[in-house]
Amino acid sequence: MAINPIKLTSLAGAAGCAAKLGAGDLSAIAFPLGKLFDTATHPNLMVGLAEPDDAAVYKLNDTQAVISTTDFFPPVVDDPYWFGAIAAANAMSDVYAMGGEVLMAINLCAFPASLDLAVLGEILRGGAEKVQEAGAVIAGGHTIMDEEPKYGLAVTGMVHPDRVLTKGGAQAGDALILTKPLGAGVITTALKQGKAHEAHVENAMKIMATLNREAARIAQQIGVHAMTDVTGYSLLGHGREMAKLSGMNLHIKTDELHWMDGVWEYAEQGIFPGGMGRNRSFYGKWAQFADEIDEKTCKLLFDPQTSGGLLMAVAYDQADMLLQTLIQQGIDGQRIGEVAEGEGLIIVE
Fold first, then answer.
1. Closest to 108 (Cα-Cα) out of 80, 76, 70
2. Which residue among 10, 218, 317, 347 has the highest number of C-beta atoms inside a 10 angstrom radius?
3. How confident is residue 41, by pLDDT bands cut at 50, 70 and 90?
């Protein structure tokens, strides 16, 4: 079936994870719910709303815990197949961030009645093949009509209860490792504005569609202390969450960060997603910037990522082994800073 060409991003109010509700608003809404379902009342709920993390974890027995998460968003790219693949990789990433493996997924779709159904078929095919790559299955789904297309997954994973990784385990002296380059929000915003170079978009699509599965497996093998995935709340936002839950400060070295091709070109043109401003407004109060950090760099550090990399805190003497193993597997590992005693701040140098 031929598909009529359409610019999917023109139908989206925001691109990918930049469409997330602001962190401050979400925290205010979710906080009371955490009190209803705390771990004292539900002792098998290992990770829930009381201490928000990347996914929920529920202990089944001494050797098995189930991981549950969901994620969906409007089109982040124009190609329906790649949109599906990126959305699926992004949704499964939360399971990997908790140290688990994906077992199965359920499609979540919203689709305009006016669009060719072949477009939806390509979105679903992209998602299905990405889930298949993860060694999991799609077992069902739910689709509604909506003028703005949306796609994602509800994902179920498994992990040993003793091997759950959270944001809250970072220790003083740990090295910070990141596994993907930054800048997805800027690239996808440039695409939505019709200003992105095709080569930059293709490079970004491949990065966003890359599973975090192998990086998470290596993290478990080495034995990292804490882990989270860097998505819509930016490197500094998700870093702040790790710092807060660990009771530590994170020191970020901007010279060590890797960026997607084209990011600085678009930043020079003032192309930033709206989510950047929301992230900066909420998380900026916990960030301290060295005098030499310019305004563009500051904005880029709050750039909302879609299907971003894993941020890991690992013992100093294991950092080189972790980096070497990641790089050997073709993963863009970067040593971007360290953990220090503190009170939940992000120190940008």
1. 70
2. 218
3. confident
Is-catalytic flag, 109? no
Sorted by sequence, the CB contacts under 8 Å of residue 324 that are 6+ apart come out as none
In this structure, the answer to whether residues 213 and 152 fall within a common structural domain is no
303 and 206 belong to one structural domain: yes
Domain assignment present for residue 231? The answer is yes
**Cα separation, 2 vs 15, whole angstroms:** 26
Query: Which strands make up the sheet holding 65-73, listed edge to edge?
Result: 45-47, 56-59, 65-73, 150-159, 101-111, 137-145
**Banded model confidence at residue 40, pLDDT cuts 50, 70, 90:** confident
* Catalytic annotation, pick one of 8, 11, 15, 17: 17
Q: Give the SS3 label for residue 222.
A: helix
Q: What is the chain's alpha carbon radius of gyration, rounded to the nearest angstrom?
A: 19
pLDDT at 17 over 60: no
> By mean pLDDT, which of 4-13, 19-28, 64-73, 181-190 is the weakest?
19-28
- Tell me the pairing of strands 65-73 and 150-159: antiparallel
Could you tell me the pTM of the whole model? Answer: 0.94
Boundaries of domain holding 225: 167-348
C-alpha–C-alpha distance, residues 232 and 20, integer Å: 7
Alpha helices in 59-102 (DSSP H): 80-97
Judge if 67 and 85 occupy the same domain: yes
Question: d(Cα 241, Cα 52) in Å, to the nearest integer?
Answer: 9
